[in-house]
Design goal:
Blueprint lengths: L31 H4 L4 H46 L20 H4 L41 H11 L6 H17 L9 H20 L4 H15 L7 H33 L6 E5 L3 H12 L5 E5 L6 H11 L3 E5 L5 H6 L3 E5 L2 E2 L5 E4 L2 H10 L3 E5 L20 E6 L4 E3 L1 E4 L6 E3 L8 E2 L4 H13 L1
Parallel strand pairs: 1-2, 1-4, 2-3, 4-7, 7-11
Antiparallel strand pairs: 5-6, 6-10, 8-9, 11-12
């Protein structure tokens, strides 16, 4: 028995009016453009076009799903009304039959809403328009990532999006180690050179993916800028093996000199500024502050520590446990309540930060600015511990809305939270870095001179 079908048989695509299109002639040649060798510029343009097309398709799909939702809800409401009244019948469906025949169509007239595909909720839908420019971390499906993104970079991006890698230095270390694997597996295509091909065709897709997962921190931005400058310094005739080996050595040097050695020097210099019987106040948890306090205790000094904790992150709880384990007397406060008398009783305030801008302002976890202002009003010194890889030599910041992030874990339709705040340089007594000029304690405004001193030999 023959059956009707609105679709076309295999091998013959159907037209909109139901007719079958003529099959393509068998002697049609293959697409010539796929066989032609494209230049690097054409490959780059093609990759950008494909990426733009993919993004457009995703946006169109989301817009279509969002527009279909109100229509479906309106249709369900109409069905509810008809079902409640129990009048008439829907078009295209038989009327009530005898016995159990009516049960076959009961769901369509009983007011039940038909099942609908789940529509992905926009995480930024509740954010006011005035904060729409502030970015927020998000998980990117690995299937949506660029085909050239290395598996090691995919793993780092997922960790950043879920805050498995949180502070700037841990994110920098993971990124550089992932880039190390990218360089090891890289092979220069025939007819190209590493100095011209690696950055636009290999490194940039990795950077774009990481930025989509979470906005890039300042330490990552500085390290990537230095890495690109290092690649661009290679001569076009430099052998690939030699260039790759030099890049791997440079990454190892960066991780050792700018992170490991910098932490050691900063902790040593800061510990020297702690005197016998002092009371050190800090906010939340920062690895440099922890290393400094433990080093000062191991040197034989007796002092106390007051920890004002971030009421959301609770990193100060772990810091208090570790300090008590080495014999340091700790006063722990779970929030900013009673801040004034605590900073007034402190000898020094030690703070860590995510970045220091060219105008000397500090980018740090939310709540840091409150502690710094209260300390300066009480006449207590505020010392910031920060590696120079976190210094931004080109940008300035005067508020917390220009360079910030929205906390994805605390973002609801009613409220949201910013991850960082901005502390003006007038509330900072000094900055301790890995440079030992003036005992390592330099004014916040001296950032540019420090950067010029240490970045030139690093690129060379």
């Amino acid at each position: 028995m023959a059956t009707e079908s609105n679709g076309a048989p295999l091998g013959a695509p159907a037209l909109q009016d139901g007719t079958k299109s003529a099959p393509a002639p068998s002697n049609t040649p293959a697409v010539a453009t796929s066989q032609e060798k494209l230049t690097p510029a054409q490959l780059k343009a093609k990759a950008k076009a494909e990426k733009a097309a993919r993004r457009a398709q995703v946006k169109e799909a989301r817009a279509a799903a969002a527009s279909a939702l109100p229509t479906a809800q309106a249709g369900g409401t109409g069905a509810d009304a008809k079902g409640n009244k129990g009048k008439g019948k829907q078009d295209g469906q038989p009327g009530p039959g005898k016995g159990g025949q009516v049960q076959a169509h009961q769901s369509s007239v009983s007011g039940r809403r038909p099942s609908m595909p789940a529509v992905e909720k926009d995480a930024r839908s509740g954010i006011p328009e005035c904060f729409s420019h502030v970015p927020m971390a998000k998980r990117i499906q690995t299937s949506q990532a660029h085909k050239d993104v290395h598996p090691a970079v995919l793993a780092v991006g997922q960790q950043m999006a879920t805050f498995g890698l949180k502070d700037s230095i841990s994110r920098l270390q993971a990124t550089m180690l992932a880039f190390r694997k990218v360089i090891e597996s890289y092979e220069t295509p025939k007819g190209n050179s590493l100095s011209r091909h690696f950055v636009p065709h290999v490194l940039n897709p990795q950077i774009e993916y990481l930025t989509e997962c979470r906005p890039m921190c300042f330490a990552m931005g500085n390290a990537i800028r230095l890495l690109k400058a290092k690649v661009n310094k290679f001569d076009i005739n430099t052998p690939e093996d030699e260039a790759k080996e030099e890049l791997l050595e440079w990454i190892d040097y960066l991780l050792h000199e700018r992170i490991a050695l910098a932490e050691f020097v900063i902790a040593r210099n800061a510990a020297q500024s702690i005197n016998e019987g002092d009371t050190i106040l800090t906010y939340g948890w920062h690895r440099l502050v922890e290393k400094t306090l433990i080093r000062a205790k191991k040197s034989g000094k007796t002092f106390g520590v007051t920890i004002i904790d971030d009421p959301y992150e609770r990193g100060g709880q772990e810091l208090a446990k570790r300090l008590r384990q080495v014999g340091i007397e700790v006063l722990y406060s779970p929030n900013l309540g009673g801040l004034r008398p605590k900073v007034a009783a402190a000898s020094n305030v030690f703070l860590g930060g995510e970045a220091i801008f060219a105008n000397g302002s500090l980018n740090a976890p939310s709540g840091t600015a409150d502690v710094a202002m209260a300390a300066m009003n009480a006449g207590t010194k505020v010392i910031v511990l920060c590696e120079t890889i976190n210094f931004d030599r080109e940008r300035v910041s005067v508020d917390a809305l220009t360079y910030n992030e929205i906390d994805p874990e605390r973002n609801t339709a009613d409220n949201f939270r910013l991850l960082f705040d901005n502390t003006h340089d007038k509330y900072i007594t000094g900055v301790i870095t890995e440079f030992e000029s003036g005992g390592g304690n330099s004014p916040a405004q001296a950032i540019l001179a420090l950067l010029r001193k240490q970045e030139d030999p690093l690129i060379a």
